[in-house]
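Input (structure):
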């Protein structure tokens, strides 16, 4: 059986000390370019993989990142994990995920226990959990590095990746008015979430500027789930006159609206235009395909991972001020001109 190469083998063949090899493996900046390239080549030739436990002990780190979330959209979580893992793989980190229940009274303790139990170096927090000031404060007290992904600017930019949902919904409002629509309704997300408020206000305020007002009875609060999209759509589509457009806070809820329209014999988009938010896989696969807002979730997750790892390693953070991303409108078959 062939012996597994060690860091000593890499050092010997590279003609450098083991400490220098360790610096290259750990991404330290105080190694010359030529030396780094030589060591990288030897590592590649030997197919050397550093022992993670030994690496962690040497650097006084676990090389583990945490991901905390409470989100019913499995496709969104999958996109986030793929984005984070792409960076983790390149930097030699592993990812530990922790679903929590944001509305539970003990969720702060639950997340704190996860951090302690997992011995993570840092954590990425997804909305709506990321909107908790109390959780951020708890992590700071424990000296745990974190990055929050959210729809509003809640923290130092080094700790944030923000999706500009308000601006994206303004674009959707202008698009729908350009199609000649004025009779509109909204299925919002839970109104205690900042993301729901940003989307609703971005949409309605732009409509008001364009001379379109949505009556109070045509704004119904949903739960961001397919089932709540169904129940809210049934309440909206029995109103008289019936809305010409329904914007739903998530694609899951928009799919629920599509189902109810089909059951009631309402043709989409001929009699009813529907728009959602997220552009998950579902949006392009339902019939008709959904007009929606595409959030660059994987890119956001990669940016969050880069920021948290740079903070953990004390590296020069070139992307510290890079924190705001704007989702964009995807026009498909579920909307049409009046």
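Output (sequence):
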């Amino acid at each position: 059986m062939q012996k597994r190469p060690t860091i000593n083998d890499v050092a010997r063949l590279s003609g450098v000390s083991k400490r220098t090899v360790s610096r290259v493996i750990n991404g330290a900046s105080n190694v010359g370019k030529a030396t780094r390239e030589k060591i990288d080549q030897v590592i590649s030739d030997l197919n050397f993989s550093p022992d993670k436990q030994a690496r962690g002990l040497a650097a006084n780190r676990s090389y583990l990142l945490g991901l905390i979330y409470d989100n019913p959209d499995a496709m969104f979580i999958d996109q986030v994990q793929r984005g984070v893992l792409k960076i983790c793989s390149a930097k030699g980190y592993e990812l530990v995920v922790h679903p929590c229940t944001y509305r539970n009274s003990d969720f702060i303790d639950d997340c704190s226990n996860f951090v302690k139990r997992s011995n993570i170096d840092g954590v990425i927090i997804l909305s709506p959990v990321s909107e908790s000031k109390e959780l951020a404060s708890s992590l700071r007290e424990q000296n745990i590095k974190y990055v929050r992904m959210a729809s509003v600017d809640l923290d130092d930019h080094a700790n944030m990746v923000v999706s500009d949902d308000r601006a994206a919904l303004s674009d959707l409002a202008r698009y729908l008015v350009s199609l000649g629509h004025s009779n509109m309704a909204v299925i919002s997300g839970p109104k205690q979430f900042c993301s729901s408020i940003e989307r609703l206000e971005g949409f309605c305020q732009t409509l008001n500027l364009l001379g379109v007002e949505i009556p109070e009875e045509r704004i119904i609060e949903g739960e961001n789930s397919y089932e709540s999209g169904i129940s809210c759509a049934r309440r909206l589509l029995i109103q008289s006159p019936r809305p010409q457009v329904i914007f739903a806070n998530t694609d899951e809820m928009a799919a629920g609206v599509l189902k109810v329209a089909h059951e009631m014999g309402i043709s989409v988009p001929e009699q009813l235009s529907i728009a959602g938010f997220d552009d998950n896989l579902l949006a392009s696969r339902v019939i008709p395909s959904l007009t929606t807002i595409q959030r660059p979730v994987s890119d956001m997750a990669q940016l969050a991972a880069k920021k948290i790892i740079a903070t953990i390693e004390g590296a020069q953070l070139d992307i510290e001020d890079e924190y705001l991303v704007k989702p964009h409108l995807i026009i498909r078959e579920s909307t049409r001109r009046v």
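Notes: The chain has 13 helices and twelve strands. The first strand starts at residue 64 and ends at 69.
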